[in-house]
Structure to design on (372 residues):
């Protein structure tokens, strides 16, 4: 058995590495395990749209958390690499007709500054010429939010935690977790590790860690594709039923589907038909763009859309940070802050609304045993 750690983290995605980074800065001995290389499978597959979703307007506490996360992400991005980690700034939430505009404005009435400024169709096309010919009434425009290069972001986090002394063991996953006196033991493919605290940040895989009670965290597949047009670029996220956004080297990313497909993370003809139809409608000038690449990733979701951040139900020495759905890249840094507070103080005010037992009580969740 290896020498004991203060904290073991399962998952080298944005949440896990953000937590490791903050804990290590406070002198905590941290080891991160991830069963794949280069780690962070779910985070690396994400397009990186760092913008609060419109659907969060139905959950004021979650919206407040995600909005607060923007400042944390801005600090992290600046410290880790600045502009090299981002593509584009701001968002256009496009609206097809007056009824849709009024419904969206009514929904956002409690957050009057959230949608931004209304601009008509002519202004939309002036801001983003790639949308010329799109049948729109207009859009709500704001400069808040941006696209994050998830590969660069994860690699910068890995480099930073390495400098801080975090041991990151990629290609090594947890086969079984056992709670013991004074902490936990984690059996991996190579050996048994011991720690005072275990933090489960395994994304879509968090609800079925072997040895721990099962939780209602499941995968939601998102398919994406990239296009290139020699004379058309985007400078911001264009959000409708799907989104278009700036990608690497002038490309445009289109995403994303939302499919309850289990852990099947492959691209499907149906998914591509959906995304290509969205392109044809939202940006007719891109119909002749060159198709470059398609891929799929797995978001971690819960039945009520709320993340689980806090003490793992039924365990004394295990914490949980998962279920962020499409907001994980944006809120990963603030979740890392919350995890560090939980490790040090046993509580976190910033994530109090997402304490797992509280969220699961809202779902009337009754665990059906231990994952195996």
């Amino acid at each position: 058995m290896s020498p004991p750690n203060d904290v073991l983290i399962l998952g080298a995605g944005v949440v896990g590495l953000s937590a490791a980074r903050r804990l290590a800065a406070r002198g905590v001995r941290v080891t991160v395990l991830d069963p794949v290389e280069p780690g962070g499978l779910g985070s690396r597959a994400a397009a990186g749209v760092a913008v609060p979703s419109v659907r969060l307007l139905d959950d004021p506490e979650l919206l407040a958390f995600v909005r607060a996360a923007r400042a944390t992400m801005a600090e992290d991005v600046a410290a880790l690499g600045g502009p090299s980690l981002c593509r584009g700034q701001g968002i256009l939430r496009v609206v097809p007709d007056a009824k849709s505009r009024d419904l969206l404005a009514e929904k956002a009435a409690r957050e009057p500054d959230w949608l931004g400024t209304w601009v008509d169709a002519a202004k939309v096309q002036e801001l983003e010429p790639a949308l010329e010919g799109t049948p729109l009434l207009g859009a709500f425009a704001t400069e808040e939010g941006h696209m994050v290069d998830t590969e660069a972001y994860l690699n910068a986090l890995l480099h930073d935690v390495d400098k801080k002394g975090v041991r990151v063991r990629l290609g090594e996953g947890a086969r079984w977790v056992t709670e013991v006196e004074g902490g936990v033991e984690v059996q991996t493919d190579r050996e048994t590790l011991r720690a005072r605290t275990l933090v489960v940040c395994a994304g879509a895989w968090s609800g079925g860690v072997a040895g721990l009670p099962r939780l209602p965290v499941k995968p939601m597949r998102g398919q994406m594709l990239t296009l290139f047009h020699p004379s058309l670029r985007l400078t911001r996220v264009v959000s409708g039923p799907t989104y278009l956004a700036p990608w690497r080297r002038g490309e445009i990313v289109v995403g994303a589907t939302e499919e309850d497909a289990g852990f099947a993370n492959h691209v499907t003809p149906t998914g591509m038909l959906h995304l290509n139809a969205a392109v044809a409608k939202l940006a007719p000038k891109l119909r002749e763009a060159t198709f470059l690449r398609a891929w799929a990733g797995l978001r971690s979701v819960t039945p009520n859309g709320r993340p689980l951040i806090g003490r793992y139900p039924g365990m004394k020495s295990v914490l949980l940070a998962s279920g962020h759905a499409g907001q994980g890249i944006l809120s990963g840094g603030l979740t890392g802050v919350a995890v560090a507070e939980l490790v040090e103080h046993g509580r976190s005010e910033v994530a109090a609304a997402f304490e797992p037992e509280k969220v699961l009580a809202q779902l009337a969740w009754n665990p059906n045993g231990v994952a195996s």
Notes: The first helix runs from residue 14 to 25. The chain has a mean pLDDT of 94.
